[in-house]
């Protein structure tokens, strides 16, 4: 792995729509980009054992997680022809309906953008030590399992 600059991934609370829109807008001057692909992970109000999820409280082994994010980023740049990439993940409380994961990749062509974005999201789910505590409407909770 190269020793490229590590990017800060974690944000406190939900990732707001204006942040996402601003991120997209900043790329309009990069005229070598022909495609963007975006993944937005949103907290669902699942019903588990008759209880409704109101929010997820995210925690992480931050130093280890940031290192894993860096490895995923570097791997994607070496595997795909990407112009740029941004990954943001929430820490703390995120309510049902709010965004907790934002992956934004750009490339000259759509195939690399599509393939890279999916690969990055799958790598995050499989390898990054982030934990979610699903908080129910009665304030009880369960630890979230990573599913598809």
Could you tell me the strand content as a percent range?
Answer: 35-45%
Biggest β-sheet: count, sense, barrel? 8 strands, mixed
What portion of residues is helical?
A: 25-40%
Report the CATH topology name: Aldehyde Oxidoreductase, domain 3
Name the structural class.
Answer: alpha+beta
CATH architecture: Alpha-Beta Complex
Shape, please? elongated
Short description:
With 148 residues, the chain is α+β, with helices and mostly antiparallel strands.
Which keywords apply here?
148 residues, 38% strand, alpha+beta, 8 strands, eight-stranded mixed sheet, Aldehyde Oxidoreductase, domain 3
Provide a descriptive summary of the structure in words.
The chain is of the alpha+beta class and 148 residues long. The chain has one domain (10-143): Molybdopterin biosynthesis MoaE subunit (Aldehyde Oxidoreductase, domain 3, Alpha-Beta Complex). It is built from 3 helices and 8 strands; from the N terminus they run E-H-E-E-E-H-E-E-H-E-E. Helix 2 (62-79) runs antiparallel to helix 3. The longest helix is centred in the middle third of the chain and has 18 residues, at 62-79. The protein is elongated, with a radius of gyration of 16 Å. 28% of the residues are buried.
Lay out the secondary structure.
Blueprint: E1 10-12, H1 17-25, E2 35-42, E3 47-48, E4 51-60, H2 62-79, E5 82-95, E6 99-107, H3 110-127, E7 130-136, E8 141-143
Helix pairs in contact: 2-3
């Amino acid at each position: 792995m190269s020793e490229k600059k590590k990017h800060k991934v974690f944000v406190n609370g939900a990732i707001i729509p204006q942040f996402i829109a601003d991120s997209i807008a900043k790329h309009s001057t990069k005229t070598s980009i022909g495609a963007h692909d975006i993944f937005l992970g949103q907290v669902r109000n699942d019903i588990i054992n008759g209880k409704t999820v109101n929010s997820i409280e995210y925690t992480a082994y931050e130093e280890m997680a940031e290192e894993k994010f860096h490895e995923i980023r570097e791997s994607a740049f070496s595997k795909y022809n990407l112009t740029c990439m941004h990954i943001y993940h929430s820490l703390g409380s995120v309510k049902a309906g709010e965004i907790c994961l934002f992956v934004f990749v750009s490339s000259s062509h759509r195939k690399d953008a599509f393939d890279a974005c999916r690969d990055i999201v799958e790598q995050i789910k499989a390898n990054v030590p982030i934990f979610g505590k699903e908080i129910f409407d009665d304030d009880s909770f369960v630890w979230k399992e990573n599913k598809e």
